[in-house]
Amino acid sequence: MATLRNSSKSINNSGFSANTSAEGGRLVNKDGTINLKKTGMSFLDRMSWYHLLLRLSRVKFLLFVFLFYTVVNTLFAFIYVTIGIEHLKGTDAGGSLANQFQQAFFFSSQTLTTVGYGHISPEGLVANVVASLESFAGIMSFALVTGLFFARFSRPKAYLKFSEHILVAPHKGGTALMCRVASQKNNHLTDAQAQATIAFHVAEEGRRVTKFFQLPLEISSVNSLALSWTIVHLIDEQSPLWGFSEADLQQSDIEVMVGVKAFDDHYSNTVQQRTSYDASELVYGAKFLPAFQRSADGSHTLLELDKLDRYERVKIESNSFNAAVTTAN
Amino acid sequence: MATLRNSSKSINNSGFSANTSAEGGRLVNKDGTINLKKTGMSFLDRMSWYHLLLRLSRVKFLLFVFLFYTVVNTLFAFIYVTIGIEHLKGTDAGGSLANQFQQAFFFSSQTLTTVGYGHISPEGLVANVVASLESFAGIMSFALVTGLFFARFSRPKAYLKFSEHILVAPHKGGTALMCRVASQKNNHLTDAQAQATIAFHVAEEGRRVTKFFQLPLEISSVNSLALSWTIVHLIDEQSPLWGFSEADLQQSDIEVMVGVKAFDDHYSNTVQQRTSYDASELVYGAKFLPAFQRSADGSHTLLELDKLDRYERVKIESNSFNAAVTTAN
Amino acid sequence: MATLRNSSKSINNSGFSANTSAEGGRLVNKDGTINLKKTGMSFLDRMSWYHLLLRLSRVKFLLFVFLFYTVVNTLFAFIYVTIGIEHLKGTDAGGSLANQFQQAFFFSSQTLTTVGYGHISPEGLVANVVASLESFAGIMSFALVTGLFFARFSRPKAYLKFSEHILVAPHKGGTALMCRVASQKNNHLTDAQAQATIAFHVAEEGRRVTKFFQLPLEISSVNSLALSWTIVHLIDEQSPLWGFSEADLQQSDIEVMVGVKAFDDHYSNTVQQRTSYDASELVYGAKFLPAFQRSADGSHTLLELDKLDRYERVKIESNSFNAAVTTAN
Amino acid sequence: MATLRNSSKSINNSGFSANTSAEGGRLVNKDGTINLKKTGMSFLDRMSWYHLLLRLSRVKFLLFVFLFYTVVNTLFAFIYVTIGIEHLKGTDAGGSLANQFQQAFFFSSQTLTTVGYGHISPEGLVANVVASLESFAGIMSFALVTGLFFARFSRPKAYLKFSEHILVAPHKGGTALMCRVASQKNNHLTDAQAQATIAFHVAEEGRRVTKFFQLPLEISSVNSLALSWTIVHLIDEQSPLWGFSEADLQQSDIEVMVGVKAFDDHYSNTVQQRTSYDASELVYGAKFLPAFQRSADGSHTLLELDKLDRYERVKIESNSFNAAVTTAN
Q1: pTM score of the predicted model
Q2: Does C128 lie at the interface with A, CB-CB under 8 angstroms?
Q3: With an 8 Å Cβ cutoff, is D116 touching chain B?
Q4: Contact C256, C215 (CB under 8 A)
Q5: Distance (Å, rounded) from C-alpha C20 to C-alpha C6?
Q6: What CATH superfamily classification does B7-36+157-328 receive?
């Protein structure tokens, strides 16, 4: 197996540790999140509710909000029943406790949402104070809930689609590591910048350590992420991958982390997305096929998102490659 | 026809492909959008509702929202009629179905908007549950609608006006490619940066390929976009346009993409705008005329936006130009 | 009078024009706005309502909003009266037209704000349709109004206070141009960057032209704008001010434009502020006095904002200065 | 005591003054705020309400808002009682003044929150005008209050935890100054950048002056702040700390200010946090122990936040160190 070249050039600015005996599994998940849990502080100290509520699935978020609405109404219904349902003018005080609770519950919901039909209305000091507090609480808590709902809806996202595989492809007489990315929705990203880091998990003096290398890219920024963008790292003598054969790569415990950030003028904000490829997602000897074509009427270009990962196998001239390796060594 | 000089310097960081056999029409539309459609994923996967609703015209957006309001009210009206209009106290249960629907519809709208007059009010468990859900749904959906309405209104825009033509003008003893830009509204942009890329669509080995060149600008950033800003690319020996005569340019299939980004302290955000010029919008041998003048009382400057594209024809010394070309070749 | 040195180094990236025969008055006003008006497009095309409504004074904004509220209610009141006040249940249809209008007006305001007491309520199709539209319009228009109100309140501002004068002070054996800036409120700015440009309005071949020079600063960025920050341009041989005596400066038609931008972590945003000094605001031979002192108990520092412009006159060694000039020439 | 090396390299871009005779106490507090007060302008001119209300503790903010709600209701209650409670239809005008005030107060709260039950409703011109104004005022003021409430909740924060101590640790055959930082919540920071400045308060010609040095960091930015990040300043010949023994450091009046900024894609914004270490928080001869481990099932990594400050004492080879110092001198 080829030894790791340029090992001295390893600079760990990945945010991960080189001491991977203490790390478990993949560093970065396929969706770009970090494969990490935090301990050592209480749950509440570790919890940002804003992050949690932004990250929940849409269904869970709406369930959460609805649960909150129900719980608050239940709470206030208890209070109104405790005060005495007769202080809610318009209710039927003669009913069962369940019926009284039901009436109080709906009065509560009419107060919390400030719909206030008024066929039921508070009477007397205590009921009025509670109703007055409830409408205040309703405005304040719906401010958070609706703010979050809109923040989720308008949260700047890159909506990038990465190719599922990363290829070692022939390129300019040598080889290059390539993945492909495109924006998948009706968004238009400009000033896009890409960045790639490779992690080699290697055994060193009996320990499993990780060497990180920033991978220089042929073109690291584009003015406009219009079509699909093939992100290319040339495997030249400066590359940590120089001299790795197909077998070497398949046996290596590697992980390539790719990140793209860009500007979206609808959000007026920077968006970013990350992904990661491990050895099983690397194809040695393949090149991407075009993922766009001219429209039938010739007036515009069609970007075919389902073809983003489309590649064909090609033979890499192992001869010239080995020769290069030999020369380099 | 002059051959493309410095062809080796072509670096495609435009986000478009060099393989333009597969591209159709202009790359960038006049309004800065990309002339591209996406396929290969389902409509919903390709659709960001946020982008769609921000991009709709004002009239269409308001119609969309109003339609949404009507549809939701109709839906709830059906539910109330199904439950039985007699559970809405204050309605006339004896009327026709149409009349019942009408009453339910308006009760629904009073609930959805939380106006809740109360001359109609829900009675019994089911009607109360539905009304309670509706006021909740109203608050949540109006949160999106009003959030979007304000987001559209406050969306950071550059409000730039570009000259409609791009000129080849005499400049410092040679020639330069020039377009002009100004902010057209009562906004003040600072730290403005410009960027220009030229695309040459050329025939190469039978295929139509595109060569992209970043055009270096004489001044690529200004502290304040106060007056009109003439963006100048010097056509010197380093320029891909070096050696192109008027005839060459008119026969060329070129596209010049110009982008400006700047900071607007009212939005506290970066804004940007792009445009594109094709060969038909290029004027060879012309120079811009001033687009501002001193105010009548001398106390301030007047920027005349209608004169942004005002230019006069000038003769370019083809002699010295050709001479230079000759020398350079 | 000293001639302008390094004239060839003049680079106009100020956003203003060198052709100042066509410019009137000061370039930048004392409050950092541009002394410019725009013409040549219709008022509506030149007007960004967002910018206008953010820039209005607080009183004018509230008056504007209140006027809007009154006008909309008046409009709807007319509609209700036209439909017939008898379709508003709970009103007194027998009153005068003025009285009818008054009742309709208040019903309108109760609908627009969604307060909906319900002692008056719409009856019949037409009145219900109008009321339903009005509550919808109320929600939509209050979304803009309240959004703007909060946007004004939360708009990122630098709250910088600049010294009113710019000094030519002795500095490191020579002289330097200095002004001073501090954040004046309970805000804390970090990563502050300053930038200064000088404009010389000079007569050249009978025309009034302006030469712009970027002024290099001794320290152009500070980690934290904690205390007052003295912005210093060294008047060395590279400076366009090199060789100017007090008399020269007073006769010169100059304008120094200073801008500071920084990060405010309460807004989580970049803020910026600009100002400008003309010759009348330049003091030749003065140095700033400290604007801070230790608190009485020694536990913290007191920044004295009223002393930001406090300076004392000092003699500039014209001897050594002139000598230097002579040597340099 | 070792003299301050490279004194000439001191560049004060800290935002603090070198003239510390006038400064009191620590420059930067442990929580990153500046130890400074401002005077010399009126309270209102120095006060940004937005900053104040964002900085208040949650409890104080809610109390403030509730107080505001109560005061406004009280105010309007007075007005309604003054007008005459009989103009509020549905109230009992025969009660005591206190009882009248109470009824007016609750009518006011129903109007301000737009809940508008309607069992009480305004009658006559004056009461209607006041109620109409109140609902308008309610919408406007709740816009600020709820906007602020959500702004507080969604305010971009870095949620960083810094080690409580800064260490002088053995590093690559020499020594280095090290502190450690991690994000403590369920947030994920990318493109993190660190910056460190040291302040030496020294006596110079009888005055207490401060020398500031930017401390170069071994790695000043990481792609992803995934695990804990050890921020390392190598104490080499270029370092202002070169040649300082343990005793020297303990006698020095130093302060190390550390700041980290990064991008949080949930806020889509830059976040930052600062801290400061004084001599009492510096441990000479210690190294950090790992703060993460592999999870029990090996599938992910556990970051142990309570171990962020965990270090062990190590002996620093004073021999080689002194030797180096001797050589360097």
Answers
A1: 0.90
A2: no
A3: yes
A4: yes
A5: 20
A6: G protein-activated inward rectifier potassium channel 1 (2.60.40.1400)
